[in-house]
Amino acid sequence: MMTQDVQCQSWKQGQKVKPKQKSMTGNNSVFSRTSYLVESFSLNSVERVVSRSGQGRKPDPTYRRDRKQVSHLVSVLRGTGKKVKNIDLETLTLHFDNYTQAVNLLLSRIYSSPKRVEDLGKQLAEYRGRAYTLLRKEKDLCYEHNEDIKELVFERLHRNVLEQTGRMLLADWTRRQLFTAALKYLNDTPEDLLTLLRRKRIPSFMIRKVRDSCKSTKNNGSGYHYAMGVLRQVRLAIDRHVLDTLELKIGWRARQRKKIALLLKNNSAEHKQVSTIVSKLVEHWVKKGYPFSTPQLKSYSLDFSASTENSTGQGYWFALDNERENEILMHLKLPPGIDGTPHDESPYKEKTLAFRFLDWLPRAAAQDRRKAETVRERRQIHRVESLTFRAAKFEDMHTQLMNTIQFQHTAHRLAKLKQRKGTDPEEIIQLQEKVKALKRSRRSAPPRLLLRGHKVTLQIPFLSPNGAVSSKVFGDREYSTKAGADRGLRAPVALSVEKEKSFEDLLITVGNLVERRESIRKFVYPLTSEVTLKKNNWDKKRSGQSYPTQVLRQDKQIAASWRKIRRLDREIARQVASRTVWFCEEHRVKKLFFEDLRSFQAHAGSRDLSYNLSSNLWGKIIDTVRYMRESLGHSKYSVWTVNPRYTSQTCHVCGERGVRVVDETSTAERKGGEYFYCSKCEEHFHADINAARNIIHVQDSSAAPGRTKDSCPSLSTLQ
């Protein structure tokens, strides 16, 4: 699951303000951006029977050892394991190639002139409409005056090409502005430049100064982390230049950082030499400009977000399969130069590439309804609420998808009737009224296609419930409490909800998922080193020849293991986020605060603890919590990230510094201990719970969600 702002991008400003809508927090809130919840569907070839759990699924007998008995079935079953036929994959790959070439062609024309990049980037940052409406005014980017573009895409697909180009241009332009601001700041303050290179972590004051000095970056959470990423890239470029100048070959990034820090020590012999090299390099970049690279689109994806639903020219067409229940046909319009196959339900005739996918939303809703009835008998009230809401959400998404398909077909039929002579005027009026009603209904947004290996995924953005579904399920609720979430060493998340004079706490664990994930990692790392060594030896002796079969098999095994790890990461994030959200729902939490660990780096020798504090997984958990909270109808301002400084070392009762201890009876300090001991209060608390309670009070309000508070008022005396 994930969220996506499709119709209203992050750079859009000045949108028409929608009417005020009452949120679940009890306040009237104005939604200037449309929030979408994206669900994925697996595409299959049209001829394939979509497999459903418990319905005729049998193992392939070709994998048995006694293959002689099933040799007559091999020809029949061969290829049934693939969801998409090879010929469809080849055609779709050509389609994506054309789309990628068109985007990169427009980017190359824009980036041929640095002045043009600056002008268009500034215009996009100030523009109040969609990107393609601005870029199509450029003569060498528009569709009418460029034959080479016409050979790659058709006219309506060109909208999506321009939209993708505009997004990439604006993101790169903003990054360049941040780079320029960072280099100017570092050049003006040589002491801060050396501090950046000496320290392991980038100081927060430096990130704030770069962010605030760049006019194109807004003062919110994303701007803070964009500035931090830019400073990391600047430091990486400087480190590599210094090592190359001194002819020091160090491949591992951690060792590079350690070496640079040693060279810049005040008492080192190389301090003055390295300082001179660094200052000259930064001064050269400020005068001549940083050597930026031209952005390129490399991913195999196709975004229809600039399309509309009322025309077949948009490039995609949905049609219900009347012979198979809850299965939908998706027809893609192919650009010039790519031949397709005609299909009866497709309006694109021979320029059609057809797929089918299972609309699993009704089945998922029915399963949740049955589970809710079973759980109700056990009197698990909160579990009943979660299952009932999820079923209602899936039913709402299914309705949106059906409204979209009906709107497509009705609008297309109306356009065809208007072109015919002798059409009954009453029929046209009826269709017009139907189209108006469907326009006002809740509908899904234009989809996105992804191609990863042999798997084709369709992502459809659905309108977030925004309180409509949740209010129907839960009724009127008042949310007034606050909660803090700490990333624990032993449990993934420690939650604490503050009530009037007490706290409600919860330690969230995920069973053996972390152990399984760690066991796979410990298996993959040595295998990767072994395969890399074999490849290097093979390249030295037989350069240009293909690797042995054993090495290729091990390569596939490594890739499969990393896919398992990514799946486990998603499942861990989903389970932790689900328990977090419903615990907050149980205690009527209005604001939820997470500690900001996106710049966290585990100390050397931490071993398994480095995974437990993984910033990557922590970010996935936060994103999933945001997704679920928005699906419940909460505002996007209900989830925040805050600076966790001193929250693990401070007593939440008196504010004094304490120590980690082994258990509830010990008072001797033990690093990494499970409990926290305060000598002033003479109390023991679970260390993660104590940190979660401190996180609640780090920040009470701010201008934007996700913003990191740079100082902790309640803990300022400790700094």
Description:
It is a single chain. The chain is 47% helix and 13% strand. It has 719 residues and is an alpha+beta fold. It folds into three domains: 112-293, no CATH class; 308-461, no CATH class; 482-718, no CATH class. The strands form five sheets. The chain has a five-stranded antiparallel sheet with strand order 1-4-11-10-6. Strands 14-13-12-15-16 form a five-stranded mixed sheet. α8 packs across α9 and α13 runs antiparallel to α14. It is globular.
Spatial strand sequence of the major β-sheet: 1-4-11-10-6
Assembly category: single chain
| Tally of discrete structural domains | 3
What do the pLDDT scores average to?
A: 82
Low-confidence spans: 1-33, 54-80, 700-719
Question: What is this structure's SSE topology?
Answer:
Layout: E1 2-4, E2 21-22, E3 28-29, E4 36-42, E5 44-45, H1 71-77, H2 86-110, H3 114-126, H4 131-135, H5 147-150, H6 155-188, H7 190-198, H8 204-213, H9 221-245, H10 253-263, H11 271-288, E6 301-303, E7 316-320, E8 327-333, E9 352-358, H12 361-377, H13 381-419, H14 425-440, E10 448-452, E11 455-463, H15 468-474, E12 481-486, E13 493-498, E14 503-508, H16 513-541, H17 549-586, E15 589-595, H18 608-612, H19 615-631, E16 639-642, E17 659-661, E18 675-678, E19 683-686, H20 687-696
Parallel strand pairs: 12-15, 15-16
Antiparallel strand pairs: 1-4, 2-3, 4-11, 5-9, 6-10, 7-8, 8-9, 10-11, 12-13, 13-14, 17-18, 18-19
Outline:
By secondary structure, the chain is of the alpha+beta class. Helices cover 47% and strands 13% of the residues. The strands form 5 sheets. It has a 5-stranded antiparallel β-sheet.
